[in-house]
Design goal:
The complex is a heterodimer of chains A (101) and B (315). By secondary structure, chain A is of the alpha+beta class. In chain A, 30% of the residues lie in helices and 8% in strands. Chain A contains four helices and two strands, in the order ααβαβα. In chain A, strands 1-2 form a two-stranded antiparallel sheet. Chain B is mainly α and 315 residues long. Chain B has ten helices and no strands. The relative contact order of chain B is 0.12. The chains are: A alpha+beta (101), B mainly alpha (315). Chains A and B meet through loops of A and α3 and α4 of B.
Chain lengths: 101, 315
C-alpha cells in the first residue's frame, strides 16, 4: 500500500474491515493509523456511503434498487502526537458525521 | 390505439409545446431582471422546472408515439422509480429484503402486465388483495417481529400508491368507450395534461397571489389563493379541451374538477408523509422538482378516480 502511495496514486480504503448491519460504521481497523504514521503528508478523505446496508445486506445476492448516496467530506491528516485510538476515532467520526450533510 | 396523425392530438401537443416556449421566454426575461437573492433563487428554480418540463414532455411524447408496450413500460418505469424513492425513506428492515425484491421485480411487472393484456378483473384486485396478503406473508418468514405492522403497512402503502394507483393512468388505454374507439391515447394525454396543469397553475397562482396558507403544518407553500386559482383555471382548461375527450363540455368540467381536487389532496397527503419522515423531497432525479414521486403525487390520487368515473359512466 505504501508503494502505491509513493507512486503518487490514491487508495480507496474500507477501514471497517468488512460489512456490518446498520448504518453506523464499526470501529476502524488499525491499518489506517499505520498508513498515516508512515506517510504523514497523506490526506485522508472521508466518504460516507448511505443506505448500502439496505440495498445489499451482507449475505444477500440480489440488491434492492433503493436510492443510495455518496457524501465526500474534507480531508483529515494525522496530527503530531495524536494517538492511534484518537486518530481512528476522529477518522470514524469524520465519516459518520457526513450522514447529516 | 394509434395516437399520431390525429388532428386533436396534434392540437394538444402543439398547445403544450407553445406553453413551454412561452414559459421559457418568460423565465428568460425574469432571470434578466434585477432582484434580491430570494427572487433570484425563485427564478432559478422556475427555470430549472421549465427545463425539466421540456425533457419530461419529450419523453412523454416519445412514449406515446411508440407502440403500446412502450406506453406500458413508460408508466411501469414511473412506478419503479417512485417505489424506490418511497421505500428508501421508509423504515423497512433486513428481514424485508426478499419482500422488497418481490415488490420491485415481480409484483410491479405483473400489475403492468395485467394492464397490457387488459385483464380488468385481476388488475383491479391483484395488489389490494393478493399483494396485500403476500407482503406480510413473505416478511413473517424472515422471523423478525420488530415493528412488523409498521414495516408491512409501509410496503403495502408503497405498492398501493406507487404501483396500483399509478397503473390506472395507462389502464385508461384499455377502456372501451362507445364512439371513442381507438382514441384512448387522447384520454390519457388529456388526463395527464389536466393533472400536471393543475399542479403548475396552483404553483403560479400561489407564487403570484399566495398569502393565506391552507395547511401550514403540512405544506407551507400551499395557499388558498394557489388552490382556488389553480383548481379554477385547471378546470377551465380541462373544460376547454372537451373536444379531445368522449365528454361533453359540462362532463369535461366535472371530470377536470374531480381530477384537480384529487390531485390537490394527493399532493397534500404525500407532503405529510415527507414531513413525517423528515425529508423535503422524495428524490433528486428531476432538477427543480425533486424526485419522480414529487412530480406524480397528484397523479397517484386522481388516476384511479378518473379511471373509475370514466369506466362507470362512459363504457
Amino acid at each position: 500500500m505504501l508503494a502505491v502511495l509513493d507512486a503518487g496514486d490514491s487508495l480507496i480504503i474500507f477501514p471497517e474491515g468488512g460489512r456490518f448491519p446498520g448504518p453506523e460504521p464499526q470501529k476502524f481497523k488499525g491499518g489506517l493509523f499505520h498508513l498515516a504514521k508512515d506517510r504523514p503528508q497523506v490526506q485522508f478523505v472521508p466518504v460516507y456511503l448511505e443506505n448500502l446496508n439496505r440495498i445489499l445486506p451482507k449475505g444477500e445476492i440480489l440488491p434492492v434498487p433503493l436510492l443510495g448516496s455518496i457524501t465526500v467530506g474534507s480531508p483529515i491528516r494525522l496530527e503530531s502526537g495524536e494517538t492511534k485510538a484518537d486518530f481512528l476515532d476522529r477518522a470514524r467520526l469524520a465519516v459518520w458525521s457526513l450522514r447529516l450533510t | 390505439m394509434s395516437l399520431i396523425f390525429d388532428k386533436e392530438t396534434g392540437l394538444l401537443a402543439g398547445g403544450v409545446i407553445a406553453v413551454l416556449i412561452l414559459a421559457s421566454l418568460i423565465g428568460w426575461v425574469l432571470a434578466r431582471r434585477p432582484g434580491n437573492a430570494g427572487y433570484q433563487e425563485t427564478i432559478a428554480n422556475l427555470n430549472a422546472r421549465t427545463r425539466a418540463w421540456w425533457l419530461m414532455v419529450a419523453i412523454f411524447f416519445l412514449a406515446m408515439l411508440s407502440g403500446e408496450s412502450a406506453r406500458s413500460s413508460y408508466s411501469d418505469s414511473h412506478s419503479f422509480l417512485a417505489l424506490r424513492e418511497f421505500i428508501t425513506m421508509t423504515p423497512t428492515k433486513r428481514g424485508d429484503h426478499d419482500t422488497l425484491l418481490w415488490l420491485f421485480f415481480v409484483i410491479t411487472p405483473i400489475q403492468y402486465g395485467l394492464v397490457a393484456i387488459g385483464w380488468y378483473g385481476l388488475f383491479a384486485i391483484f395488489i389490494p388483495v393478493y399483494a396485500f396478503l403476500f407482503v406480510p406473508l413473505r416478511s413473517v418468514l424472515s422471523g423478525d417481529c420488530e415493528h412488523f405492522l409498521e414495516r408491512t403497512a409501509t410496503m403495502q402503502w408503497a405498492l398501493m400508491i406507487c404501483v396500483y394507483c399509478v397503473s390506472h393512468a395507462p389502464a385508461l388505454l384499455t377502456l372501451e368507450i362507445p364512439g371513442f374507439e381507438g382514441q384512448n391515447g387522447k384520454l390519457l394525454f388529456y388526463f395527464v395534461l389536466v393533472v400536471q396543469a393543475s399542479d403548475v397553475l396552483q404553483y403560479i397562482w400561489g407564487k403570484l397571489l399566495g398569502k393565506h396558507k391552507i395547511a401550514p403544518t403540512v405544506s407551507p407553500n400551499k395557499t388558498w389563493e394557489g388552490f382556488l386559482g389553480g383548481v379554477a383555471t385547471a378546470t377551465l382548461l380541462g373544460t376547454a379541451l372537451w373536444w379531445a375527450t368522449p365528454f361533453t363540455p359540462w362532463q369535461a368540467a366535472g371530470m377536470s374538477l374531480a381530477i384537480t381536487l384529487m390531485g390537490f389532496v394527493g399532493g397534500l397527503v404525500m407532503s405529510a408523509i415527507k414531513r413525517d419522515r423528515g425529508v423535503k423531497d422524495y428524490g433528486t432525479l428531476i432538477q427543480g422538482h425533486g424526485g419522480v414521486m414529487d412530480r406524480i403525487d397528484s397523479l397517484c390520487f386522481s388516476a384511479p378516480v378518473f379511471f373509475h368515473l370514466t369506466r362507470y359512466f362512459f363504457t
